[in-house]
Amino acid sequence: xxxxxILLSDLDExxxxxxxxxxxxxxxxxxxxxxxxxxxxxxxxxxxxxxxVVVLTAHGPAxxxxxxxxxLTADRVAPDKGRAYYAxxxxxxxxxxxxxxxxxxxxxAEVTGVATAAGCQLVASCEIAIAASTAQFSTPGxxxxxxCSTPMVALSRNVAPKHAxxxxxxxxMTPAAWAAEIGLVNRxxxxxxxxxxxxxxxxxxxxxxxxTLATGKRAFYEQREMTLAAAYDHASAVMVENxxxxxxxxxxxxxxxxxARRWQDC
Length: 266
What we know:
By secondary structure, the protein is of the alpha/beta class.
């Protein structure tokens, strides 16, 4: 069990929303309850005008240890040996990871400790990840006969195929420094500097126009799945619409006039 709320939420005056996984005794597992709460939190953040950036972090030595295997195993007694429940959980988890992508606000993972299996997937799904030097990452499913197929989706979209396959095929722990080398995280800082570094970055991003950030985030993921020519056509159309937005007019005008920008997020 856990003490109190398993997902904490705190919004500061700069529009930075901190979502904190708060089930440290169970290593912040992605139980059905945690997945449901996370999905709702990301959806709410996307529609809340007061939220400009989301930071996802955790309490305890583990950032997130992935799925709750005891919860999953308990359903093996069902007539279908758990098939329906497993399908439900995998769909729920995949929905949460996609909710990070479809959320209109940038999401930063602040990785405090070990992130394994679906926990590693959670980190890989965020736009940016800052890790403490003591953090470690792995996709260890292969060690228990369960290949990390869904974590593979996010992992393979962040790191080179050979690095992704090494993690997936061995299940070995990847130290934070190497995770930064292969592109799983953006940077590594001392544990005592982690919150400071993440907050500084989050506030820098939060100072930008929310409309511009939402436009750019959506276009980034859309064009990534296209051919080169189609991506340029799409990005060009996005630029045209962006140029017609009030904040682009304001930002360009302020740059030319050498004055402070006044965003209206429209």
